[in-house]
Design goal:
Layout lengths: L1 H7 L3 H11 L6 E2 L8 E3 L4 E6 L5 E6 L2 E6 L5 E6 L9 E5 L2 E16 L1 H4 L8 H4 L7 E6 L13 E5 L10 H14 L3 E7 L11 H6 L1 H15 L1 H18 L17 E2 L13 E10 L9 E4 L12 E6 L2 E3 L2 E2 L8 E4 L9 E10 L10 E3 L2 E2 L6 E7 L5 H5 L16 H7 L9 E5 L8 H18 L7 E4 L17 H11 L6 E4 L16 H15 L11 E8 L2 E7 L5 E3 L5 E5 L4 E4 L12 E4 L5 E3 L2 E5 L2 E5 L8 E4 L9 E3 L11
Parallel strand pairs: 2-8, 8-11, 8-23, 9-11, 23-24, 24-25
Antiparallel strand pairs: 1-3, 3-6, 4-5, 4-7, 7-8, 9-10, 12-22, 13-19, 13-22, 14-18, 14-20, 15-16, 15-19, 17-18, 20-21, 26-27, 27-34, 28-36, 29-30, 31-32, 31-35, 33-34
Helix pairs in contact: 5-13, 11-12
Length: 670
């Protein structure tokens, strides 16, 4: 049982937590991973684990293999089965006195990251084509839970089978990845989805990694300090905002200190702009029934407008049945961005009147995105609005001097919070590998990603007991407007892509380049077939030995100067480089079928996306970029003495270089 010591005991916090579950008595409790419809890894050392009374013997059998384990003093047991010769099934698995039905044996991959990995098949552009297909060999386990302050050895979740009303709940990238593997290998594939939107990479780092790596520790200590001192930080931001309002005569005039009696009109449909006349003060009113039994009578305001993730700077007053309620903040250190307003129990009637006053000195307050009562979001229908007063729209000087907006304080940014709640309980699961799609949240700090990302990969491998466990990720897709300025210094998305690319220095890692599948107006591209297929191409070639299947796009090998030109030589060109036709329009948002005319930065060049700079460091788009064998010859009249060259180095570049296998060239710069 040596592996138990190296993988199961993540830290003392897990052991203490397990002691609690051991108090359940002699009942053997398998991890939720080992429930009906599970997929087990076909390997000689497949881990089955769970909880029991300390010292209790646990027997496990499936597909002709069996093993026994004894629960340790911490209440945890791990049995290891030789499933290398098992057929795919379906099988019945016995764990102690429990029976697990419809179990199959094949490949198992963890799919993690933020919203583009959590993005469901039901929202993908091929949902109608895929979501009714029934394939019993593709299954997905949805990991429940969320942010926790300490590692939790338990996870919740359930296995989904493909088919109507089920496939639509699966991770779209993970589904297409699994489908490609299943088609090529002819074996079952299980995807374990543990992802959550808007999450930062530091939330997925385990506490031990934070403590051991000095660079990572310094960064995560700074993030922890920010969360710990968030309320003080917020008060300072609010004071700066009031000072700005006073300076420019935009202070709250407050004509009413109690809800107005007249001037109300009904809000209809999906109206979000609850104030017609610009910045100022607005009142909202609605009838609210008592909360359901067991629900607290409290009004909760999420302090970020969920529609577009801008911080809502509105000052808020909440009235309940005519009484003004005091604001309080969540005491949980990872939820300090939540405001609570709690009426006294005696003030909660069968039907109540809720009135909220918003004041915003700079913009129209879109306020209906962020109000909850008794654990339920209050729907749009039923609100009335009364406009108290309006302010003129901002002048240029006023807008330029607005204090910096408050930083996010979202729970899924809390250092180690998601590792604790959504990864720790998966260890020591037997996996084929890991696929990852994350980084959008970290674009404000792209250089730090270069340390955090490989540190996280190494730590997960260490905890899973496989120092070269296959790990592949999606490089960030294009986002934001097509940049017509080659010298734009604000290219954080491009810089984060470079940090992702450098993680390929780790062994057995891969990257799906997605520079060609982004949407300018949507951070969540609906094409998830391409990311899944490119990740699967890497896995089939590198993990499963299918050397006949290509997976690499052209990568810069060397750069040489030839007079007024730069000659860029590429590796991984297959049978040559190709400049694809760009067409005359570019995708803005696929969900609304929105396109815009494509304006090429280098209209006379064969290859689009190259830029050059001279000794002064100023960048210009190439006038000419022409393929010659495995090279691209790049020149610009604005840079007669070039010293450096970039390709696709922008937030959402216009780029069209591929190889004959159909894979896009890897962006490079810096």
């Amino acid at each position: 049982m040596k592996k138990l010591k190296s993988t199961a005991l993540l830290c003392g916090a897990i052991s203490l937590a397990i002691l609690h579950c051991a108090a359940l008595g002699g009942t053997v409790e398998p991890s939720a991973l080992f429930s009906d419809n599970a997929v087990l890894l076909k390997s000689p050392d497949t881990a089955i684990f769970g909880f029991a009374k300390p010292g209790e013997k646990v027997s496990v059998s499936v597909a002709g293999a069996s093993a026994e384990a004894i629960a340790g003093t911490d209440g945890r047991w791990i049995a290891r089965l030789d499933l290398s010769a098992a057929d795919k099934g379906p099988h019945t698995m016995k764990i102690g006195g429990k029976t697990v039905n419809n179990v199959i044996v094949g490949e198992v991959w963890l799919a993690s990251g933020q919203s583009n990995m959590a993005f469901k098949m039901g929202s993908a552009d091929d949902a109608k084509e895929e979501c009714d297909i029934v394939n019993p060999d593709i299954r997905c386990f949805l990991v429940g839970g969320g942010v926790e302050e300490k590692p939790n050895p338990r996870i919740s979740g359930r296995w989904l089978l493909t088919g109507p009303a089920k496939t639509c709940e699966m991770t779209a990238v993970g589904y297409h990845f699994a489908k490609n593997l299943n088609t090529a290998l002819g074996v079952p594939v299980g995807i374990v989805e543990s992802a959550i939107g808007a999450s930062a990479i530091e939330a997925w780092c385990d506490p031990e990694t934070m403590a051991v790596d000095p660079v990572v520790k310094a960064e995560l200590d700074a993030q922890t300090a920010f969360f710990d001192n968030y309320l003080e930080y917020e008060r300072r931001c609010e004071a700066e905002l009031v000072e700005w309002q006073t300076k420019f005569g935009r202070a709250d005039m407050r004509k009413f200190t109690i809800p107005p009696e007249t001037g109300w009109r009904e809000l209809s449909g999906q109206e979000a702009e609850s104030f017609r006349h610009g910045p100022g003060a607005v009142w909202l009113r609605r009838k609210v029934p008592s909360p359901a039994a067991g629900r607290p009578a409290e009004i909760l305001r999420r302090r970020f407008i969920e529609k577009d993730w801008l911080f809502d700077t509105s000052a808020v007053d909440v009235f309940w049945n005519g009484r003004r309620l005091e604001r309080s903040f969540a005491q949980n250190r990872v939820d300090k961005n939540l405001e609570y307003y709690r009426p006294d129990a005696g003030d909660v009637l069968a039907e109540n009147t809720l009135e909220i006053r918003f004041f915003n000195a700079e913009s129209i307050p879109s306020v209906l995105y962020s109000t909850w009562f008794g654990g339920m979001r209050l729907p749009y229908p039923g609100w009335s609005v009364c406009e108290e007063f309006s302010l003129p729209y901002l002048k240029a000087e006023e807008r330029a001097s607005i204090p910096p907006r408050q930083k996010f304080c979202l729970p899924q940014h809390w250092p180690s919070g998601l590792f604790n709640g959504k990864i720790a309980g998966l260890i020591p699961m037997s996996l084929s590998g890991i696929i990852w799609y994350q980084g959008e949240t970290n674009t404000s700090r792209p250089e730090e990603y270069e340390s955090l990302f490989p540190a996280m990969i190494k730590s997960w491998r260490r905890l899973l007991g496989k120092p070269e466990l296959p790990f592949a990720w999606c490089q960030l897709a294009g986002f934001h407007k097509k940049d017509d300025n080659a010298d734009n210094p604000d290219v954080r998305w491009a810089r984060l892509r470079m940090s992702q690319d450098r993680a390929l220095r780790l062994p057995m890692t891969g990257q799906a380049v997605l520079i060609d599948v982004g949407e300018a107006w949507d951070i969540h591209p609906r094409d998830k077939r391409t990311p899944g297929a490119r990740l699967a191409a890497w896995a089939l070639n590198r993990v499963y030995g299918r050397k006949d299947l290509p997976y690499l796009g052209p990568r810069v090998e060397k750069v040489e100067r030839a007079g007024d030109r730069m000659v860029v030589t590429f590796a991984d060109c297959a049978n040559g480089l190709v400049a694809r036709d760009l067409g005359d329009k570019c995708l803005m948002r696929s969900s609304t079928n929105s396109y815009a005319p494509l304006v090429r930065n280098s209209p006379d060049a064969q290859v689009e996306g190259f830029s050059l700079c001279g000794a002064d460091g100023k960048w210009f788009w190439a006038d000419e970029a022409k393929i010659s064998g495995n090279t691209v010859v790049v020149s610009s009249k604005s840079v007669p003495d070039p010293v450096n060259v970039r390709y696709a180095y922008a937030e959402n570049p216009v780029a069209n270089l591929y190889n004959t296998d159909g894979f896009p060239a890897v962006p490079f710069g810096e």
